[in-house]
User: Fold this.
Amino acid sequence: MSTAAVVTAAGSGSRLGADVPKALFPLAGRALVAWAVLRVADACDEIVVTAPATHVADIEVALAAVPELAGRPMLVIPGGAERQQSVAVAIEALFAADRTPPDIVLVHDAARAFQDPHVTHAAIAAVRAGADGAIPVLEVVDTLVEAAGATGELGATVDRDGLRAVQTPQVFRAEALRAAHRDHSTAQATDDAQLVRASGCRVVAVDGHESGFKVTRPSDLPLAEHYANELRATELLASELSVEEKP
Ligand code: C5P
Assistant:
């Protein structure tokens, strides 16, 4: 079964407060989007990246700078105004008339650049085993309460035991994902599973991982740097070992 990845990287990242779009933010010498693509690349046959319309070429350059991604089928396209539209544009690119569409599509936020690849493989396995979709989830650690916001009034405390926080990559049968985006194009969904489930499809949960946190605010950057530096150290070790093994 062929698998494609849609990596959404077209957001401005205004909450990060950087002077470049979030996808281009440098971490251990590599753009955030490059880390995100690297973490899912081994799980898929082709990759479509959505970029801010003003920065398509910059994102192409950032991806081309990663030797491990050389030769991989990859397309960078301008995203839409909202994340949902970016995903819809990317799906239509995968289903263009002049190409063979994939069987499975995973949708991954570039902002979750360090997600553990085991999570991606588990979600793909669930779809291969027959689910229409699979999404990584994590236990909620905070107490949750209903609150309207500005008024300061509180409603009920919500039992967190039955709730989970949702991550990406979210993996779907390609046809189910495409139909859901077409059928619910006017909905305003914060993830793709909502749309696929609204179409009556069966989406299951797999275990997420803390490394799949979303880089959102400046306070997330030290943790992102930590993961980037750890991965760099692992790469260095692997390349040193491969040199030693050569006769
Ligand atoms: O804004 P939010 O944090 O929900 O964005 C999640 C992901 O969707 C980010 O990786 C962002 O780059 C991407 N995005 C996109 N197109 C948009 C808005 C966000 O690809 N118009």
